[in-house]
Design goal:
Blueprint: H1 3-11, H2 23-46, H3 53-60, H4 64-70, H5 74-94, H6 102-119, H7 121-132, H8 139-162, H9 171-187, H10 189-196, H11 203-221
Helix pairs in contact: 2-3, 2-5, 2-7, 5-6, 5-7, 5-8, 6-9, 6-11, 7-9
Length: 225
């Protein structure tokens, strides 16, 4: 949140309180979301340095001056978009809980991750692009917030292993495989469509992808003997 946004929200009595959002604060949030959605289109195609704020402002139907009121620099806008998509990307992982039956939990995680790849392909591609560039603007978030969450969920998977519910595997490698397979459908969507003639937007192909990944991965981690 920028200083100016904080001032606006404070003026509406929103900071430090649980008051319901006012019309003004809702308008501020809506404008931010419109700008971030427009920015995502360009960032996912051209990255930070190849994106023009003039083009983003034009796509969001705001003046560049108005855009800079909400996001004082292109870097701040880029980081805001990245953090927003990271929340989307991590939502399925947050849902993983020790109370779940392991195989059903993994199947559900695969389904939810493929939903993200289907519904937010641009977000997945931008995240991939940021990783390929060494995550210069997101490294701190990855090494703190993401690591804490992954450590927590790895402990859950490790508990399943110790209880004999799944094969003896290293949780991190399972998560890496899950990320790689599900996000492939977004990050390499052009390749998939060129080969198969289909995308996750095709219901039958989506269901086929879900069923096959669920079968392949759960069979691989099923206890032997």
């Amino acid at each position: 949140m920028t200083g100016r946004e904080g001032e606006e929200l404070a003026a509406d009595g929103l900071t430090g309180s649980k008051k319901a959002p006012t019309r003004r604060s809702r308008a501020v949030a809506a404008k931010r979301n419109t700008i971030m959605a427009a920015a995502l289109e360009f960032f996912s195609l051209y990255g930070l340095h190849g994106t023009s704020l003039d083009k983003v402002a034009e796509r969001a139907d705001v003046s560049k001056t108005n855009l800079l009121y909400y996001f004082p620099s292109k870097e701040e806008l880029y980081v805001a978009v990245l953090k927003d998509l990271l929340d989307i990307w991590l939502e399925p992982l947050k849902a993983l809980s020790p109370e779940q039956q392991p195989m059903e939990a993994i199947k559900q995680y695969i389904y939810l991750k493929l939903c993200v790849s289907r519904d937010h392909p641009q977000a997945s591609r931008l995240f991939c692009l940021e990783m390929l560039q060494g995550a210069p603007l997101l490294k701190q978030v990855l090494s703190t917030h993401l690591k804490v969450l992954v450590d927590e969920k790895s402990d859950i998977i490790r508990g399943w292993v110790q209880a004999g519910h799944i094969a003896p595997i290293e949780p991190l490698h399972l998560l890496f495989i899950l990320w790689a397979t599900t996000q492939h459908y977004a990050d390499f969507g052009v390749q998939i469509e060129a080969i198969s003639g289909q995308t996750l937007g095709d219901e039958a192909f989506f269901e086929q992808a879900v069923a096959n990944l669920q079968h392949i991965i759960t069979q691989g981690i099923r206890p032997q003997g």
